[in-house]
Amino acid sequence: MQAIHNINLASLLDTFISVAAAFILGSVIGLERQIRQRTAGLRTNTLVAVGAAVFVDMAYRLDGSGGAVRVVAYVVSGIGFLGAGAIMKEGANVTGLNTAATLWGSAAVGACAGADLLGEALIAALFVLASNTLLRPVVNRINRQPISEESSEATYVVRVICSRAARPDVLDHLLVLLEAANYPVRDVDQHPFGPADTEIGATLYATAVEPEELDRVIEELEALDGVQQAFWNATAEE
């Protein structure tokens, strides 16, 4: 009978408003992530926001503001573990950091909503969205600027193995494709590869690299006549 005794229409309405706000704001954050085809998209960010709101709201009802504060602390650490699962390291490239940070932001939005701080939840959601949208052009512009060799943490090299007869055309296409992708070449190395082939290595200037863009360059190179293999790699500098 305790379950029936705990039913309070006013409290239920308050919980509904809090969770609905977390659902809407989490969905808005997740929609932006889904449009950009990120690992954690619409459903993940919405669930994180709703889950955080439910936990905080429940703690507030059971133990007042002190209980809510303690649960918020656990939400922060728990979302840290969830975000760690979205972070992947491949060679010198680390991906998923922004996804993990966005999940953290969604949890903060949900926690605010669960604590009945709807205005704060809205403000938090707006700033999470602004970080993922308004700052993107700024980041892309900065990343396209060459950085000093002393501060570079990785060296990116595009390698192509082709027949010796096709080497001049392949080299020209390689330089054109990299220039079109805004990855200027710092140095080109060529040496024999087997009895009839040549390996071309194009070292890029120290700029931030988008793996998907280099992968597209590789696909176009492999479609050229005389190309046996094309790939790129990153070497971390100690």
UniProtKB/TrEMBL annotation:
Residues 20-139 form the MgtC/SapB/SrpB/YhiD N-terminal domain. It holds the Pfam family MgtC_SapB_C. GO terms for cellular component: plasma membrane. It comes from the Bacteria. Its main location: membrane. Keywords: Cell inner membrane, Cell membrane, Membrane, Transmembrane, Transmembrane helix. It is found in: Cell inner membrane; Cell membrane. Residues 156-232 form the MgtC-like C-terminal domain. The chain crosses the membrane at residues 12-30, 42-60, 67-88, 108-135. It is a multi-pass membrane protein. Belongs to the MgtC/SapB family. Virulence factor required for growth in low Mg(2+) medium and for intramacrophage survival. May be involved in regulating membrane potential by activating Na(+)/K(+)-ATPase. This is Protein MgtC.
